[in-house]
Amino acid sequence: MTYCLLLPAILYLIPACSSTPQPQKAKPYDGEDIPRNASAPYEVFGKRYYPISSSTGFVQRGLASWYGAKFHGRLTSNGERYNMYGRTAAHKTLPFNTYVQVTNSKNGRKTIVRINDRGPFVRDRIIDLTRTAAHELGMVEDGVVPVKIEALGYARKKREAGQVVREYVKPASYQVGDFTIQVGAFAEKENALRLYASINRKYRNASIHVFDQGTQRFYRVRMGQYSHLDKAEAAASRLQEQGFPNAFAVARDN
Questions:
Q1: CA–CA distance, 230 with 223 (Å, rounded to integer)
Q2: 68: domain CATH number?
Q3: For the purposes of burial, counting CB atoms within 10 Å of the CB of 56, is it exposed (0-12), middle (13-18) or buried (19 or more)?
Q4: pTM of this structure
């Protein structure tokens, strides 16, 4: 089984705090690889959820909420650190890394966010937003508002009229690509070097990738290269059995 939920499920039962600091500029997501397993089922509060394999044509209406300072820096369900100043969101079934447009039905304001977490596990709520996204929708004080979400797809950069712009694309396949296994991620470089040395003595194909989140730098220990996600996940499962419980499949750097 690949990466499991790390945020406490109770997260989604606690209302956001209106005393959260004002939004600040966050380092934008630039295509850094993250787990993109769209199909691994999971269970919360005794209910099993089955993420969909494609976001094509996905539209949904319901309630949106937001989570803020209390969870800033904690791990999200896909292994990233939650950044309340970014533009990301939690959704129960959309594939990780999918961008969605969220429209506040009360005032018509819109924002675009990227799915990197699971939830909210509260009745009638369909998406949980960062503080910045909630601010852009004008819903910080309300806490919960009716919204419409529309999936845009994955994002990639292209140059247009001399400027770099973002466009949204639907992947041909979620299973075929360039994948590797992340065995651990550390804020301290020395810890990453120790794990790297341990893995490389046996497998000889480990590497360390630096991920700068803007507010903190992480050292990710990776190993192997696979052209199919299912093969990467099978290899990750074997590593878990061999004493590396945090191993999971991720898409490699572009």
A1: 16
A2: 2.40.40.10
A3: exposed
A4: 0.57
